[in-house]
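@channel anyone free to eyeball this complex?
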Amino acid sequence: MRATSDEVLIGRIAQGDRLAMQVLFARHHLRVYRFVLRMVRNEATAEDLISEVFLDVWRQADKFEGRAAVSTWLLSIARFKALSALRRRGEEALDDEKAAAIEDHADDPEVTLAKKDKGAVLRQCLTRLSAEHREIIDLVYYHEKSVEEVAGIVGIPEATVKTRMFYARKKLSELLKEQGIDRGWP
Amino acid sequence: MNTTNENERSELESLLPWHAAGTLSAREAQSVETALARDPELKRRYELVRGELAQTIHLNETLGAPSARVMTELFAKIDAEPKRHAAPSLNIGVRIAEFFGALSPRTLAWSAGAAALAIVLQAAVIGGIALKEQSAGYQTASVAGAASGDGSYALVRFRPQATAADITRFLETNKLSVAGGPAAGGLYRVRIAETKLPKAERDQRIQSLQSDDIIGFIAPTE
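replying in thread with the prediction:
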């Protein structure tokens, strides 16, 4: 049981409580880092970005209205920062095909080994999804965000969240099929 | 299957990822459960979703962690920020939370006691199950298996809808014992075999356990 809720910590941070900031950072930085890393695919950039995210939290804590969970707010800020960084790097033009080509380690011994393990093949295919599809899969499965929360973070209608998730999973099935695994869906 | 049923199935199918992650409302979760019970194809597709969930968690958990420089640099920047004057928060949610936080221990004792009792009861149920599975004597959950290095283990998260009776049934049916937890994210360390199984056999065992409805997440662990 947590002694202090995230909302209370944000209230204290708004009043300049450095310790509250340390607690909030300790509680959330790992997930925020992983979320950002999956978007920017560069550890040093991801580290810089989470520092920026939490600095924003320090500066804007008094503007937090509590309409969403603090973790959802953090991911929203992180997403904005990551997209800005990607634009600066000029990677927004990457389409699925190019991204897949970059991630395609067809001759990698790990892949050869992975083919013997369905779970490993699935993970490999997850890394080959487009940024948009990776994002929604991660938010739903790893960050445990509801339809409403994903809609808030990504800035799309709830119906689009479900549609995007469907297409992300469909693409995953296609990638698996390329690797010789037919899931019989969709 | 007529159009109405197709539409209904399609809508329910779109909810499967959130059902697997345990983030649906109780009403939606019940609708999905009912549909899964009567629709074998939907159930098959749900297993695909659960596989995706497990591997997404696995993938993210292997991403590592940021270096210590992040925290050092962040707080150096924070320390360089202009000092702000403490002002009462205007946010009603925070004020309510702060209000409860400020109550005396005695005042809080009754409500906290009730909440603690619920947690203790839940822990007792699972702890009781764990002890029941031990052959003889008493071992703490954290000691069991950890020191000996024997046995095969999995990290398990039960679905939020699972009752204590469901968990008991699952553990007894599959001859499992709880070795530790709950850790962050409601994960339990469960012993799935008395001996250290070969990888293939362990994976097969986990795959078999994964098919049970009460499992939200399961992955091998040491």
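from a first look: Chain A has two domains: 6-89, 96-178.
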